[in-house]
Design a protein that fits this description.
Layout (H helix, E strand, L loop, with lengths): L1 H8 L1 E2 L2 E2 L2 H10 L4 E2 L14 H11 L17 E3 L5 H6 L2 E2 L22 E8 L4 E8 L12 H20 L2 E10 L9 E11 L2 E10 L5 E11 L8
The structure holds Palmitoyl-CoA.
Length: 236
C-alpha cells in the first residue's frame, strides 16, 4: 500500500514532482488521515435520462471498464473526479500538515446531488481532446432560469485545466477568454468540448466550445492559456 502511495505522489499525470516536495510528502505520510476516495463523476439519481444516455455512450467507448477495471480497446478514458485534487495524487490520502485540510475542489464542494455541478469528463489521449457532460443544477442560476456565466467559466476552466494537466503536467490558468453566445438553461445537459491548440515551451493553449448534446447549438466558446509550474511553488 505504502509503495503504491509513494509511486503516486512521485508523479502528477506522469510528470515527476520535485524531490524536496516528495520528501515533505513522504515525511507527512506518518500523520495522514486516510479518506476513502469517492468518484463524484459516477452516475447518481439526479442525472437526467439524457445525461445518463450520453454517459453510457462515451463509457461504452472507454479503454477500461469503470466498474470491473477490465481493459477494453476504446479511445476514451473516463476521468475520475474527487473533491480534493491532492487525494487523487496520493491515492486517497490528503496531507493535512501541508495544505488546508478543509479545502475542497470548488466544483465538488456542495453535497446535494443535482444542485450545482453534475459532470463527467472523458479524455482521448490520441487526439488530445477532452469532452465533458455537464448538467447544471438549480443553485447555479444567473439570468432567471439560466446558468450563471461564472459557473460556465468555472466548468470551462476545470475541463480545459484537466486536459492541460494530462498533457503538460501541473499548470495554472494564465488567461481565460470567453464568448457567451446563447444562455444555457438550468437543468439541461450540455457538452463541453476541449482540444489542444498548441504547446509552446511552458504555455499550453486550449480551445473550448460548449454545445447542445446534438451539437446543433453553440452556447459558449473560449480559448484558455495554461502555464506549467513547479508543483512546489504552490506550497511556498
Ligand atoms: C496535485 C494533484 C492534482 C490531480 C489532478 C487534479 C484534477 C482536478 C482538476 C481541476 C482543474 C482545475 C483547474 C483550475 C486551474 C486554476 O483555476 S488555477 C487558478 C487561477 N490561476 C492563477 O492563480 C495563476 C496566477 N498567475 C500566476 O501564478 C503566474 O502569473 C503564472 C501564470 C504562473 C505565470 O508566471 P511565471 O511562472 O512567472 O511565468 P511568466 O514568465 O510570467 O510567463 C510564462 C509565459 O506565459 C506568458 N503569460 C503569462 N501570463 C500570461 C497571460 N495572462 N496572458 C498571456 N500570456 C501570459 C508569458 O508572456 C510567458 O510567455 P513566454 O515569454 O514564455 O513566451
Amino acid at each position: 500500500m505504502l509503495a503504491h502511495i509513494a509511486r503516486r505522489i512521485g508523479h502528477f499525470h506522469g510528470h515527476q514532482i520535485s524531490s524536496a516536495i516528495l520528501r515533505r510528502m513522504r515525511a507527512s505520510l506518518k500523520t495522514i488521515n486516510p479518506i476513502s476516495l469517492q468518484d463524484f463523476s459516477q452516475p447518481n439519481p439526479s442525472w437526467s435520462p439524457e445525461m445518463r444516455k450520453f454517459y453510457d455512450h462515451y463509457n461504452a467507448q472507454c479503454d477500461t471498464d469503470t466498474e470491473t477495471y477490465e481493459n477494453k480497446t476504446g479511445p476514451w478514458r473516463k476521468l475520475p473526479s474527487y473533491n480534493r485534487s491532492i487525494k487523487h495524487a496520493t491515492g486517497g490520502i490528503y496531507i493535512s500538515k501541508l495544505i488546508q485540510a478543509k479545502a475542497r475542489l470548488f466544483t465538488r464542494s456542495v453535497n446535494e446531488q443535482g444542485a450545482t455541478f453534475e459532470y463527467v469528463a472523458f479524455f482521448n489521449k490520441e487526439e488530445k481532446i477532452c469532452i465533458c457532460l455537464f448538467q447544471p443544477g438549480h443553485l447555479l442560476e444567473g439570468a432567471p432560469g439560466h446558468v450563471h456565466g461564472g459557473a460556465i467559466a468555472t466548468m470551462i476552466d476545470t475541463v480545459t485545466g484537466t486536459l492541460a494537466g494530462y498533457l503538460s503536467g501541473p499548470s495554472v490558468t494564465a488567461n481565460l477568454n470567453i464568448n457567451y453566445r446563447s444562455p444555457v438553461p438550468l437543468g439541461s445537459v450540455v457538452i463541453i468540448h476541449c482540444a489542444l491548440d498548441r504547446i509552446e515551451g511552458r504555455k499550453t493553449f486550449i480551445t473550448c466550445k460548449v454545445t447542445s448534446t446534438d451539437e446543433s447549438k453553440v452556447y459558449t466558446e473560449a480559448t484558455v492559456l495554461f502555464v506549467s509550474i513547479k508543483l512546489g511553488s504552490l506550497f511556498g
